[in-house]
Design a protein that fits this description.
The protein is mostly beta strands and about 260 residues long. It has 4 helices and 15 strands.
Amino acid sequence: MKASITIGQRTYQTDLGLGHDLSIPLRHGKGVRAWYVDPIEITPVRTAQFTGSVAEGGAVNFRNIFFNPHGHGTHTESYGHIDREVYSVNRALDRYFFTALLITVRPETAAADTGVTRIGDRIITQRILEEQADGHTADALILRTLPNDDEKKDINYSDTNPAYFTTEAMQWIVSNGFEHLLIDLPSVDRESDGGLLQTHRIFWNFSGDKRSKATITEMVFVPKVVNDGFYLLNLQTAPFENDATPSRPVIYPLI
C-alpha cells in the first residue's frame, strides 16, 4: 500500500505495508519491566459458575490482566506523570501521525559527580545527540541505544541504574522542537534521583507554559534491521484515561 505524503514544501513516498512496530508485547510472566513491579499477570476469570478458559472447559477465553502502565512494556506518557493535575495522555494526543528522526546512540560513562550524575553512570549527552542528529529535526525523536540486543524485550530494569539523559541533552531536544520523544529505556531521568525528575521537567517545560501536547514513550525496541533516518511515525495508544497508557509506535520509511 503505497502513499504520497506532503510535509511542508516536500513530497515523500512511503509504503504503508512496510511499517516497523517498535512496541514490546505485554506477556504473562514475561516482558520488559521496571520500577520494581511484579511480572504481568494474564489469568482466566474463575468463579463457581464460569471458567474463562477454553482449555479448561470454558466456552470462551475471558481473562483479567494486571499490569502497571509505567512499569510494564512500551508506554506513552503525558506531563500528568509528574503533575498534581490529572492530565490524561488522551488529551495530549489529538493527532497520531508525525515526522520522526531515528538515531542510534552509545551512552558515555560519566567521569565525574555532577549534581544528580554519579561517576560510572551511563549518560546521553548533548554532544552525542548533536553528532547523530547532524542538524536534522522532526516532530519526534526516536533513540536506539547501544548495545541493542534482544534481551531488551525481556529485561527487568529495576535496580540497574539504566542510561539516562543529562539536563543539557534534554534542553537540546526541546530547543530543537521535538514534541515527542521515544526511547528504549525506562526513563529519561536517573533511576534514583531523589524525586527531582529534572529532565522530565525540562521536557514538559515545568518552569513556564507546559508543553501539553508533548509526550514521552518509553521501553520501545528498534530492531537492528531498521536504519537510522527519517520516518513517518504512527503513535498508537490504548484509550486509558490516565497519565500513561500502553502504546504501539509504528514507523514507515519516508523517501
